[in-house]
Amino acid sequence: MASLESQSARDSVAQASREIRAEAISLQENSEPLNEAETLNPEATLSLEGAVNLEDILYLGDRGDFEETLYVEEPESPEDDSVYRGDWAARGTIGGRASKSLRPEQIVCEGEMTEREEKSNPEENLKPERSPSPEENLSIEDLELLEGRFQQCVQAVAQQKAELERDGLREEIRLVKQKLCKVTKECVTYQYQLECRQQDVAQFPDFWEVLTTKAAQLSGELVQLQDAYQKQKEQLRQQLAEPPSQRDGPFLQEGRQLSAQFEHLMAESHQGLEEEYEPQLLGLLERKESGTKALPKTQAEIQETKEALRPLQAKARQLHLQKRNLEDQITVVRQKRDEVQQYREQEEEMEE
């Protein structure tokens, strides 16, 4: 690519030198002054010294539009001196400066140099001359300068985009951290409540085991007492089945007393167990029911908080987009201001 650009630049320079020499010869023959040559508009030309308009550097339009800004009318035939001189006057200077009239000594020298080159290179004179294109009028240094400035502009745009993206990511990270802190506090609160409920639920099996053990113990005692009661009852039945006698009277009375005492003890023990363990059992059941009832409520509260966060998230996204749009507008205004400043500086330099 670099070799092609260098070759095209060399061809353009050689073509321009040949045209200048041919024009000098034609002017020498016709003895017409070259002071009538008009200069092109400095804004439409490119300077070979590096003063290039920013619009030419950042130009992204069609190639035809760019060629129209640098359009140079080609002569119809090299033999027609009048047309060729008109074309030369319309071209002006490539660097955007006022064209200067050639002195007679320069015309004669250029004519002699042209004759010498034509004699030394007759084959090149016979070759058909290519029409110079706007790209060939630029030298290698100009092309490299344009490419360097274009790369600088691209790098500046990429850097600006990276800064905007970084600022946006920082804002998003800050918002996410705020939401994370809030959600973390809520999670800690709910976790504490859940641990309290879990402790209550964890203590329930211990109470249940104690009550079960106590009930089993009392059941064993009850079975023993029932066995003893049955034995005593059988003995008393056997005694009743025997013929009555006076000795049986005290035994029967004692048996009745023991039976009444046993029933009284059983009733007292049963009532004592109910009075001691029934409140604890009821309290555990109430805690379990309250825990089961509070669990859906806490889940519903968590869902409500999540739904309340959704509009805030949407609003944050909208504000972020508005911020990005405003930053883009500010960037565009700054670029336009810089372009106007550069254009004014160029105008001042041209006026000077």
Looking at this protein, list some descriptive labels.
352 residues; mainly alpha; 79% helix; rod-shaped; 2 domains
What is the helix fraction of residues, given as a range?
Answer: over 70%
Measured on Cα atoms, how large is the radius of gyration?
55 Å
Beta-strand fraction estimate: under 5%
How many domains would you count in the coordinates? 2
N to C succession of SSEs: HHHHHHHH
How many β-strand stretches?
0
Main β-sheet, in a few words? none
Output the number of helix runs.
8
- Terminal Cα span: 39 Å
Instruction: Give the overall silhouette.
Output: rod-shaped
Biased composition (Basic and acidic residues): 113-133
Protein name: Syncoilin
Region (Disordered): 111-139
Coiled coil: 215-242, 309-346
Q: What does this protein look like?
A:
Residues 111-139 are annotated as: Disordered. InterPro entries: Syncoilin. Residues 113-133 have a biased composition (Basic and acidic residues). The protein is mostly helical and 352 residues long. The protein has 2 domains: 2-138, no CATH class; 160-350. 79% of the residues lie in helices and 0% in strands. The chain contains 8 helices and no strands. The chain has helices at 2-30, 54-57, 63-69, 81-91, 104-120, 122-126, 140-241, 248-351. Helix 1 (2-30) crosses helix 5 (104-120). The two termini are 39 Å apart. 6% of the residues are buried. Mean pLDDT is 71; it is low at 31-112 and 117-132.
